[in-house]
Amino acid sequence: DMGGHDTYMHKEIAEQAEAVDRVLRGRIDDKFATVHLGGLNLDPREARSVRRIKILGCGTSYHAGQIGAQLIEELARIPADAEPASEFRYRNPVVDPDTLYVAVSQSGETYDVLAAVQELKRKGARVLGVVNVVGSAIAREADGGTYVHAGPEVCVVSTKCFTNTVVAFALLALHLGRIRDLSVADGRRIIEGLRRLPGQIDEILKAEPEIKRLALHFADAKSMLFIGRVRGYPVAREASLKLKEVSYIHAEAYPASELKHGPLALVEPAMPTVAIVPDDELLEKNRAALEEIKARSGRILAVAHQEQEKADHTIIVPKNEDELDPILMGIPLQLFAYHTALALGRDIDKPRNLAKSVTVE
Ligand code: F6R
């Protein structure tokens, strides 16, 4: 049942405020400015002894894991990184007893992720799952973890589950942070930020008519560049994946800082750029990148917290805490991908060559 929407993708984008509400519900502990994650199966002493965190997932779940790794480093100061599970399992990785592994999957059935988890467990590693489908293979195989509570996601292209997975990582990061060095004041600041998310998501979704207009404006592009820096880079990667999957327009994501090391050669009017420009300590650096693009007559669509003078168009999103901004900044670009695909007459819920869960090697 699409509840009045023309596609599941549109329905699932529209459901994100309630989905985020669901992942937060019952988990916040205001007294200690922390969160409780029931199934984690990691006591405080174990949580304190974790030296590294390695996050494994594929596609959109991998991108959510990249933001998750940044959240864990920022809030819990534990070195963390994400890697495609499909790469990890083929490279005879060093499995370190002080590393906590986290497997991320919407379906909980992705074979590359499951195989990575099985290999890790065979070698004695501790593996948590951040999974949407309750009781799925990866959820069962993991030592513990947390459900993402996005609800059923039918469209092959993941939207609401991406958002909820990142929120679940923010909860995990806050939990680990408050067991380690994160202050009560910072814990409160993050909790208040999390509570603002559902209202801010609805605010972003209200800009749909404007986003649709922009999508029609850029739908003739053969290729698009997506750029962002640090917190904005995984957002750019995910937005680029969304556009490719659903519209079949070629898109490439690059760190804004790397533009001058190559991709600037591609910039011309026929190659538009989508730039993620949060109001954080890198704002001036990001503005300089926009200037570089403008100087080469590149068309720019910015997603930002304030109007960007160098951009041809700016989609303004509400500001949250710096650490949580990536959760919001990709949402308008889900609608951008959707409306581009709609304009091009694509099969939105079932893009060619793709399947909802990839249970083969
Ligand atoms: C993106 C997409 C895929 C999946 C990937 C992992 O929109 O649908 O990239 O994210 O196949 O799937 P899960 O999360 O089920 O393991």
TrEMBL record:
One GO CC term, this protein: cytosol
Biological processes, Gene Ontology terms: amino sugar biosynthetic process; carbohydrate metabolic process; fructose 6-phosphate metabolic process; protein N-linked glycosylation; UDP-N-acetylglucosamine metabolic process
Highest taxon listed in the record's lineage: Bacteria
Alphabetical keyword list: Aminotransferase, Cytoplasm, Glutamine amidotransferase, Repeat, Transferase
Domain SIS residue range list: 42-182, 214-351
Main location, first listed in the record: cytoplasm
Catalyses which reaction(s): D-fructose 6-phosphate + L-glutamine = D-glucosamine 6-phosphate + L-glutamate
Catalytic machinery residues: 356
EC numbers for this chain: 2.6.1.16
Localization (cell): Cytoplasm
Molecular function GO terms recorded: carbohydrate derivative binding; glutamine-fructose-6-phosphate transaminase (isomerizing) activity
EC primary class: transferase
Function of the molecule: Catalyzes the first step in hexosamine metabolism, converting fructose-6P into glucosamine-6P using glutamine as a nitrogen source.
Quaternary structure and interacting proteins, as annotated: Homodimer.
Protein name: Glutamine--fructose-6-phosphate aminotransferase [isomerizing]
Organism: Actinacidiphila yanglinensis
Organismal lineage: Bacteria, Bacillati, Actinomycetota, Actinomycetes, Kitasatosporales
Gene: glmS
